[in-house]
Write a structure and sequence with these properties.
- There is one protein chain.
- The protein is built from 5 helices and 9 strands, in the order αβαβαβββββαββα.
- The protein has a single domain, classed as Small Protein B, Chain: A.
- With 162 residues, it is α+β, with helices and mostly antiparallel strands.
- A hairpin with a 4-residue loop joins strand 4 and strand 5.
- Helix content is 38%, strand content 32%.
- The chain is globular.
Length: 162
């Protein structure tokens, strides 16, 4: 039974994180959404050939739609040309209608952005963690760097004492 779990995506399923997003944005709420992908896209993602760094999510309330823009998924080299995908195409995200409408309202009201934070596989299905982010100013980024460095120094000092 444990062999089956690992073959369904335990060891082979990577977790791709967008660490820069947490630095550039103050992340509030997070949501887990599904993705509509082609077979060659899934194979590329399982190989870790994806970049979330430039990506963003658009939410529309009237026809409740979530779309992932500007995420690059490399072409899968073993796929035949007719089954190959477009690397930067707009991808549809799956969530409940009420969640999509709520996200659209939050983004419109706060002036926030929907940012892809992490992509992972859950029971064989690709899931995307998106967050409601408010952009940080340069001074906020500097303060975050300062806090991170201070925490690192304190942890080092505690570790040396032991």
């Amino acid at each position: 039974m444990s062999d089956r779990k690992s073959s369904q995506g335990g060891a082979r399923a990577p977790t791709i994180e967008n660490r820069q997003a947490r630095f550039d944005f103050q992340i509030g709420e997070t949501f887990e959404v599904g993705m509509v992908l082609t077979g060659s896209e899934v194979k590329s993602i399982r190989n870790g050939r994806i970049s979330l760094g430039e990506g963003f999510v658009m939410a529309r309330a009237t026809p409740a739609i979530l779309e992932l823009h500007a995420v690059h998924i490399d072409e899968y080299p073993q796929a035949s040309p007719q089954h190959q995908h477009e690397p930067r195409r707009v991808r549809r995200l799956l969530a409940h209608k009420k969640e999509i409408e709520r996200l659209a309202q939050v983004v419109k009201a706060k002036g926030a952005s929907l940012v892809p934070l992490k992509l992972y596989f859950l029971r064989g299905r690709a899931k995307l963690l998106i967050g409601v982010g408010i952009g940080r100013k340069k001074s906020d980024k500097r303060q975050a760097i300062r806090e991170r460095d201070d925490k690192r120094d304190a942890d080092r000092a505690v570790h040396r004492r032991k």
